[in-house]
Amino acid sequence: MYKIELYDTTLRDGSQSEGISYSVFDKVRIARKLDEMGIHYVEGGYPGSNPKDKSFFSEFKKNPLKNSKLVAFGSTRKAGVRASEDHGLKSLVESGAPVVTIFGKTWDLHVHDVLKVTLEENLEMIRDSVKYLKAEKCEVIYDAEHFFDAYKSNPEYALKTLHAAEVSGARLICLCDTNGGTLTSEIISIIRKVKEAVKIPLGIHTHNDCGLAIANSVAAVEAGCVQVQGTINGYGERCGNADLVPIISILKLKLKKDCISDDNLRELTEVSRFVSEISNMKQADNQPFVGKSAFAHKAGVHINAMLKNSLSYEHMDPALIGNSRRMLVSELAGKSPVLMKAEELKLELKKDSPETKKIVKLLQDLEHEGYQFEGADASFELLVKKTLKEYKKFFEMEGFRVIIEKREKGKIYSEATVKLRVEDVQEHTSSEGDGPVNALDNALRKALKGFYPKLSKMHLSDYKVRVLDAKEGTAAKVRVLIQSQDEEDSWTTVGVSENLIEASWQALVDSIEYKLLKDSKPR
């Protein structure tokens, strides 16, 4: 048994996040991923509430999880119905999940105003439900809903609800800050008092309405809780649930709690991004530990210090959780990142050389115009190599034209024509596309593929536009970032102009040039 149990509720609480809607296939994929990572409990949902969750649990009857325990979630029985006759409880047993978590009311406000039953009847609902599930050979976790609000309102009755679950056979009681309004100092104080009154293990389940879910979860462990419930990336209703990603990192690396293996910890960044992708939610760049910017350094003073000792501006080694350090190239960074990038590219560049000063000055001028290279490494590499005259052009552009036409039934068509020259051969090619950028991409590659067949292996994977000065309205400059990829790699390029098509064209040409440069390098 691990000292600290990790309990994931992404597939139930996380799915209640605005903008998330999992298919059965999505839920199965996430559950398998969490199982591979060694999360101890994976809550799959409420099998009695909808056909989707029922199908989900059926999948694991045939192919059980290998490392994690699958959990079915539900509530105590309805008032006036025996537990053995309650549809919801029966569906939990029929799900085949080895663990069942049920929530019950601990706050007298909810008992009176929501359930509309007596305080004693609520206690009997808890006792009867836990006893029934235990008799059906289920491991029972009892979620004490709204516990901290309940304790602050009526501590005597709140503890009675816990005792009802304890004496009836619950293995663990999880204390829930359901409204997310409890302060960390209150969490610690209340848990210490509960530990004096309850003998079975305690868990913690917090919400982030005050931005304290992670801090409250960690404090609860320090106060004696042995199970932490949360979601990957903090997904959940309203402001979300406690984010298991930083919680796992803090427990393992800061508190030295045995909650996950070192090998599985190194999967944390990949798992966070996997769940983000399946959830169709962009991962926050500044997400602690695993975000793209979590170990990114931009200021020149910081970078200079980092080159001497990584501990100067990092609290840990990012490799421990599968992330990586990034030195951002910007007008703030000075010479250090330029020199580092040149070293990566195997280019001879010295700190006080005229070439270095020229690149830094060019970088500052371009960023003043609106370029941003910290997220466009491919464009930066081209910039450096062209400045150092280490780059031979693969083609010469002579011009392009884009026509946008609205035809029958209101459908929009885009056609692009490009003129270019490869050595002494001129190409004049046109192509249609779903939009002007797609049409330009198709035409450019069509013109070049006879000379460079490997271009057929690349495609655009993302396209972003940023208005740089909104007060200028439609005359404002725009920054376009294009992400491209092939079978081996992905890269990002940038373009800036008052004309959206021109900015897109700049980024598009850079993307093609980078692909050709990459393929020409000796392997």
Question: What do these coordinates show?
Answer:
This protein is α/β, with parallel strands linked by helices and about 525 residues long. Among the domains are: about 5-280, TIM Barrel (Alpha-Beta Barrel), CATH 3.20.20.70; about 290-325, H-NS DNA Binding Protein (Irregular), CATH 4.10.430. Helices cover about 40% and strands about 20% of the residues. The chain has 18 helices and 16 strands. The chain has helices at about 25-35, 50-60, 85-95, 110-115, 120-135, 145-155, 155-170, 185-195, 215-225, 245-255, 260-265, 270-280, 300-310, 335-345, 355-370, 375-385, 435-450, 500-520; strands at about 5-10, 40-45, 70-75, 100-105, 140-145, 170-175, 200-205, 225-230, 295, 325, 395-405, 410-420, 425-435, 460-465, 480-485, 490-495. The strands form 4 sheets. It has an 8-stranded parallel barrel, surrounded by 8 helices. A hairpin with a 5-residue loop joins strand 11 (about 395-405) and strand 12. The radius of gyration is 29 Å and the shape is elongated. It starts with a strand and ends with a helix. The mean pLDDT is about 90.
